[in-house]
Amino acid sequence: MALKISQKGVVLTGRLDTKVLDRLVGKTDSERDKSLREIGFAVQGRAAAAAPVDTGSLASSIYTRTPDRAANPPPVQNSEAPRVQLPKPPKGWVYVGPSVEYGAYVEFGTKYMMAQPFLRPALNGVSDDLRKAAQKVAKPPAGMGAR
After folding, report:
1. Residue 24 burial (10 A CB sphere; 0-12, 13-18, 19+)
2. 40, 94 in Cβ contact below 8 A?
3. pLDDT below 70 — which residues of the chain?
4. Which of 6, 19, 75, 79 has the most CB atoms less than 10 A away?
5. CA 13 to CA 32: how far, in whole Å?
6. What is the model's pTM?
């Protein structure tokens, strides 16, 4: 997981290694991209559920950006916070994050406020789910052990 800060805003990036899953399933590029979108949406859902709620703006601002879709951050109600837009990810990547500028401060905390992580736990949870799914795919069916 990395944090990039630039004039355009703050970007939290996490890398989910899907090489093993790709190799096991033999995915084509379009199948891989579809799987990555599904993974991104799973992270988005978990992050929104884990985001601390005051007005609900942070949770409702979390969205997924893919290389083949235009950036359309969701509208955020009850917030006048500055908005940021996730950059366009390279092919084979998806970005998930909030469109409210203060999301990074909530995730990592400040010297005045404790961190309340919501993206990192979401990424870790989906990563665990993928690892379990890959293990199921790699296991032979019951009664079909190696000979």
Report:
1. middle
2. yes
3. 1-28, 70-72, 75-79, 133-147
4. 79
5. 19
6. 0.70
